[in-house]
Amino acid sequence: MEKAAIPDNEASRLHALRSLSVLDTPEEERFDRLTRMARRMFRVPVALVSLVDENRQWFKSRDGLAVCETPRDISFCGHAIHADDIFLINDARQDPRFADNPLVTGEPHVRFYAGCPLRTAGGHKVGTLCIIDSEPRAFDEDDRIALRDLAAVVEDELTAFQTATTDDLTHISNRRGFLQLAQYSLNFCARHRQPATLAFIDLDQFKPINDRFGHAEGDRALVAFSDTMRNSFRSTDLFARLGGDEFVVLLSGARKADAEQVISKFAEAVHAHNVRAGRGYELKFSAGLVEFEPSAHRNIEALLAEGDAQMYAIKATRH
């Protein structure tokens, strides 16, 4: 079996993938209808919208396949993202790269594979729209055109998803994007009995920045704060601008004591930014930390409400 090579632009490709804020989100009809359409159109048992992450291929939509992800090192899509056009395998048993692949020798017994790379607006290939059959088959030019057309629709949906869940000013997740991802993350933590802590963050003395330096400078301050968040937290942490000068971070796998250390280091990073920037004002913040308890927090909104209350209680002691 031949593992797919890592693309030369892997770091920027992964950044582009994660900036879509689509990984590990719930199933959505707008993607599912496209895999259903592909499955019917090409008369195949399996159609997937597959996104190639660092160590896995994760399926935003799957029709005809039970699992939601498989390891990247055995994936066909890991090869397909190197292609400029459709990556085609007519009979995997006759291809030395795949003949002994576990996906060929075992379930789902892949014989035929056709995957059209999915590109972001910046041109990064983040995954595929692919179709799979357990029997060898041909694939003509009309088939290629049809798969390309469907893949273009998937790309449009990914762009629409990113636009709907990304804050226009700071380019981090907005409230909608955070709520979608955070609820999924909390459900995962509850099922697997893993801790999580939410930090509700509010900038201190933000209004005087707008009043004294103007709203353009206020926007610049929000962007700088967001950039510091992006550079400080792990890729597995969920952070977002909820609106105005309110931000949030969900730290999966962290208890409150761990989160306090993380936020302390983040405060040091914000202070370092202030020293470097020299804008005539300092960015400071208050943060309310709440450890997730499944019995007490029915959903992410309940966790946010408690974090918000704690943050304002802390802020009140400073005035």
Question: What this model shows, in words?
Answer:
- The protein is 43% helix and 21% strand.
- A hairpin with a 5-residue loop joins strand 5 and strand 6.
- By secondary structure, it is an alpha+beta fold.
- Helix 2 (29-42) runs antiparallel to helix 5 (141-165), helix 7 crosses helix 8 (215-232) and helix 8 packs across helix 9 (256-277).
- It contains 10 helices and 10 strands.
Q: Radius of gyration, Cα only, in angstroms?
A: 23 Å
- Give the helix tally: 10
Quaternary organization: single chain
Spatial arrangement of strands, main beta sheet: 3-2-1-6-5-4
Q: CATH topology of the largest domain, what is it called?
A: Beta-Lactamase
Return the structural class: alpha+beta
Q: Please give the CATH class of the largest domain.
A: Alpha Beta
Helicity range: 40-55%
Shape: elongated
Give the uncertain stretches in residue-range form: none
User: Main β-sheet, in a few words?
Assistant: 6 strands, antiparallel
Number of strands: 10
- Average pLDDT over all residues: 94
Q: Whole-Å distance between the termini? A: 65 Å
CATH superfamily of the largest domain: GAF domain
Number of domains: 2
Q: What percentage of amino acids are in beta strands?
A: 15-25%
In the CATH hierarchy, the architecture of the largest domain is: 2-Layer Sandwich
The SSE string, one letter per element, is HHEEEHEHEEHHEHHEEHEH
